[in-house]
Amino acid sequence: MNGINLYYETQGSGQPLILLHGGLGSGEMFGPVLPALAARRQVIAVDLQGHGRTADIDRPLDVWAMADDIAALIDHLGLDKPDLVGYSLGGGVALRAAVRYPAKVGRLVAASAHIRSDAIYPEMRAQQGQVSGAAAEFMKDTPMYQLYQRVAPRPEDFPRLLDKIGELMANGFDLTEEVRSLRVPTLIVAGDADMAPPSHYVEVFNLLDGGLRDGGWMGEGRPKGGHALAILPGLTHYNIFSSPLFAAATLAFVDEQQG
Which one of 59, 124, 132, 136 is CB 3.0 to 4.6 Å from 166, fit for a cystine? Predict the structure, then answer.
């Protein structure tokens, strides 16, 4: 598929839900919440290009290309409008897949995924600008490095992954217009102390017709596309993906009847 051999693991049964991890992670990141998700859904946890057990290929890490990979996987597995749930980088991939392939997607949950590169705090932008293969030596004690060494087909490729992630983060982007035209019911999720301020995620919700009026007794004032927003208390960018609150918000949204 697209010249890449995507690794994925499937758990549970029911309506399919594709789960996409964050940068430098893998599907294993979601270990603490997988049982809750798989109790209600068939969860397909994917390792994105160059991450986890999916070997890298000779192309840059491009979020749109990774979205194409997920669309190809949906076709390959013959899935009928699975829900897409992504965190951080995976949230960006899921969002772009829903923008480009709305007919292939049921519902979308984008967690801790900012839609403009300038939305995150300036000190985080500065840190991201320093990510490169040269940092590999300093990351040997991190969970990301240890996971990669344990599962990657070529453990020695970690510096190359850092180089590619650094290049990816150096590219500015603005998905304002794409989000405004989203046709897939979307839940925007963030921690209350995330990488971008809560106001950014409210702004995204505004683009989706949310937060602009009273919701009404019968919900008649809610966003027309079925969109929703969850700012989760006590969470950061670095622990939201393993929180029971994230699992609960995700399930509440994807299990809502289409209406």
Answer: 132
